[in-house]
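Researcher: I'd like a structural prediction for the single chain below. Treat it as a standalone chain; there are no partners to consider.
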Amino acid sequence: MDLGLTGKRAAVAASSGGLGFAIAGGLAAEGCRVGICGRDRTRIEAAADSIRTATGSEVIPAVVDVSGEGEVTRWLDDLAGRWRGLDLVVPNAGGPPPGTFGDVGPADWDGAYRLTLRSALETARAARPHLSRGGALLFMTSASTRQPVVTLVLSMVFRSGVSALAKALADEWAADGIRVNHLIPGRIATDRVAELDEEAARKGGITVEQARARARAAIPLGRYGRPDEFAAAAVFLLSEAAAYITGATLAVDGGLLRPIV
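Model: Treating it as a single chain, here is the predicted structure.
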């Protein structure tokens, strides 16, 4: 299938590793020019080199803290200036610290807001002037937006806000031909999920492998997903093949979430 992505101008935030890196690589493999960013210069430049080597596509790395005031805006403005606009934008950020309501304090709430919800708001606001008809924005959240996870209260609260933002923008931007969709990762084998498994093991007094076995037992497909499997869904939703899809929420979770609607 021709996804119609050759030559498209894409920006993927927080993409030195994990799901952001996988999506950036998937887009580059389809012929996109890709801007990526991360907080650590060494890591983001290594990520860019890796994607260039694997795909032959243009990849522009930048050092950006998505929770920093105005940093995302400056990054997207710079990319759009180089390329005379943007076609595809993926807001993204690392997950806030785990914990229950009783575990976290006011500073944790403020930091999680800046990292998770405010960064998504800023990315959308900064991207909008550079997107035109046929453009697409793709948000990512977590399974906690559909199914409460009390040990991830910061993520659950603020990523639910991101989910609502995706719906609002899908309605608002549709008249201008810009699509907005929303992906929910289940347990994808990333460093973030590995950290959560370690935390679950510590709190439960069990081994990390026992914690992973419990998590796998709740997944109908019986395994964690791979980052490239998640990225494949993201690339599709950003592509011309999904030109009639907006306002959608898709879980890439091996069947983990079981809502009736």
